[in-house]
Design goal:
With 145 residues, the protein is α/β, with parallel strands linked by helices. It has 3 helices and 8 strands, in the order βαβαβββαβββ. Strands 1-4-3-2 form a 4-stranded mixed sheet, covered by helices on one side. It has a 4-stranded mixed sheet with strand order 5-8-7-6. The model has no long low-confidence stretch (mean pLDDT 94).
Length: 145
């Protein structure tokens, strides 16, 4: 049996970065824990000081399939290349004809660039564009393919 897991991303501005990744992945703000009507209720119940309540954010897949994403505020900024990155698979995979797949990739790149991402590099495969390496608004690398 597989173990449920989530991914936590260290960042400076959790709510803003969560907003970007919600757009990138089609995720939504994670619902509060069962038995609580809001995150504020849960924070109060757990004794989280008000000044610490904006130090994190969480997203979930609205279909309940993908892993949960958490965003945790940390004091240091990103300084080196990620050892782990997300592949945002908008193109349909390499089995999808390039003429169908690549416009999907470009549309997503345009949408994510407008939301604050930057293109780092375009990768080629067999002489054609294949995928884009990008960085989110805080510099975390990810690929769009």
């Amino acid at each position: 049996m597989a173990i449920e897991w989530s991914l936590t991303i260290d960042c400076a501005r959790p709510a803003k970065l969560a907003e970007f990744w919600a757009l990138a992945l089609g995720y939504v703000q994670a619902p509060p824990p069962v038995g609580f009507g809001s995150w504020e209720e849960w924070f109060t119940h757990c004794g989280v000081p008000e000044e610490e309540r904006d130090q994190g954010a969480a997203l979930s897949d609205p279909d309940g399939v993908g892993p949960r994403l958490s965003f945790l505020q940390v004091p240091e900024s990103k300084v080196v290349k990620n050892r782990l990155h997300l592949d945002v698979q908008v193109g349909g995979g390499r089995a999808t004809p390039w003429e169908v797949r690549w416009p999907r990739v470009l549309e997503a790149v345009d949408r994510l660039t407008a939301a604050g991402a930057t293109v780092i590099r375009e990768y080629q495969l067999q002489g054609k564009p294949d995928h884009m390496l990008m960085a989110d608004p805080e510099g975390n690398e990810f690929c769009v393919l």
